[in-house]
Amino acid sequence: GILEKIRSYLIKKLLPHLEDRRKYHREFASSTSFHGVHNIVQIQSKTRKVLWLLVVVGCLAIAIWQICSRFIYYFSWPTTTTVVIQYVENVKFPAVTFCNLNRFQAHAVSNLKIIFLIWNIVSGVLQKFAVQDKYSQELNDFLLGNQNFSIKEFTKKNGFYLNSSTLLECEFFGKPCYPQDFEHVFTEYGNCFTFNHNDLPARKVSLSGRGLHLLFDVQQEQFTDEPALGYTDAGITFVTHSPKELPRFDGLGLLTPVGMHAQVAIRQLKSIIQEYPWGECKPDIKLQYHKIYSTNGCLQECKARYIQDWCGCLPFILPGNGTECDLLKFYNCVYPAVYDIEIKGLCTAGTHNSTCPAPCEEMDYPTTVTYSSFGGEKAIKYFSAKLKKSPEYIRQNLVRIDIKYHDLSYKITQQQKALTISELLADVGGQLGLFCGASMITIIELLEYIFTNFCWMCIFLLLKAPEMPQWNNPSQNQPTHKEKKKGIQEC
């Protein structure tokens, strides 16, 4: 049958004779580039055969152990950190956002003290704030009686402003700058102003020790805040950040009190983080309302999405397009929603599986700040005559800030793979070559030898299979109608 034909073909064409198979094994052992095997086959002394067998098996075991350890190390996703300091002829100046610690004009809130509490609730989407029970009734009465009140417009109109009366001096790298060079932005401190924002051409400095020179008049008699809510200081707070990112205070701002001169030396630090599983970043994440990815921007967009879904409106202090939330929704919906987001961990940051993982590239500006009292006696007299203010006013209201680069260099901190795939292959090849004298050609020889023997084994098992039963063919074994008739006639 068909099975017999297959068997005969396999025996004649594919399966060598026993002597040919033994000859193939001997030739492989003698000619393979796997060191030590030919000594086991060719040496006549049994003692030396055993010794060489132990040597080959021992070296092979050590090579396998070393290779397994390298694979285990590779799949632990190890990393190293390199630090490179690059010196350049000029370096880009960061954006700097300034805020007055006294957020509102005194005349605007003299009969409206509840405004401080309202702004804290509004800015609670950026900074956690808990409303005390003693303010709840007063807040409810105000909201019910002033449903059309806009805290955004009120703050923009009656908050801290930047003009020639509050910004007395401004100079960047020897050239004068003006209040119109600053961009308005809302933060938890109300009206704030950013120098060197993203819409302007990049500003660079080519000499360390020179940069931004500012002199503020905080005008304490015109601007005030509520000490009962924890705002007891007077001065300017500021933060340095990338021009493409939003300012983030949240306890990270630098404070310069009145009557002080702050010398701020900055450095530029670029951090590069590997993608998961080596690091915690995800390079495919893009933000909708920010040009570059940052953890702070991602958290703001995450909160904006949840608040818009739950409350049907969007706080003006968060990025996005949507209907602006009124005060009643801020208090009844947005404020509880922010609390719920924090409690349930709906917007998390840090690890690769969080809502906002670490950025793959991040620019930071570490600062060193030194302080001195503002002005000697001559300087106090000079500004007193210039501004037509008393010396006491000068000491209680003026703030000088100098921001400059420490040197014309930037530091790159880069997280790198401790073991790449090419280095892994090099390690494996080194272990095989050291202990077995093997290479990729040797591996191919072994695979060919194993495949050939596997094929012979399959053919051998197929030849040993039981014969298929012969099923009766009705058309051949059973007599036809004419044969039956003929048989009857013969009978």
Mean pLDDT: 82
Q: What is the overall number of helices?
A: 16
Biggest sheet statistics = 8 strands, mixed
Q: Identify low-pLDDT runs.
A: 467-478, 480-491
Strand content: 15-25%
CA-based shape: elongated
Query: What is the terminal-to-terminal distance?
Result: 35 Å
What's the β-strand tally?
Answer: 19
Supply the helix-strand structural class. Answer: alpha+beta
User: Residue share in helices?
Assistant: 40-55%
Radius of gyration: 41 Å
Notable features of this structure?
single chain, alpha+beta, eight-stranded mixed sheet, five-stranded antiparallel sheet, elongated, 41% helix, disordered C terminus
Overview of this protein structure:
With 491 residues, the protein is α+β, with helices and mostly antiparallel strands. Residues 467-478 and 480-491 have low confidence and may be disordered. Helix 4 (46-74) runs antiparallel to helix 13. It has helices spanning 2-14, 18-31, 37-42, 46-74, 106-109, 114-122, 136-145, 151-158, 295-311, 327-344, 377-387, 391-397, 421-436, 440-463, 474-477, 481-490, and strands at 79-87, 91-92, 95-100, 104-105, 167-172, 175-176, 182-187, 190-195, 204-205, 211-217, 223-224, 235-241, 254-257, 260-272, 349-350, 356-357, 361-364, 367-373, 398-417. The strands form 5 sheets. Strands 1, 5, 6, 10, 14, 17, 18 and 19 form an 8-stranded mixed sheet that branches. Strands 7-8-3-12-13 form a 5-stranded antiparallel sheet, with no helix packed on it. Strands 2-9 form a two-stranded antiparallel ribbon.
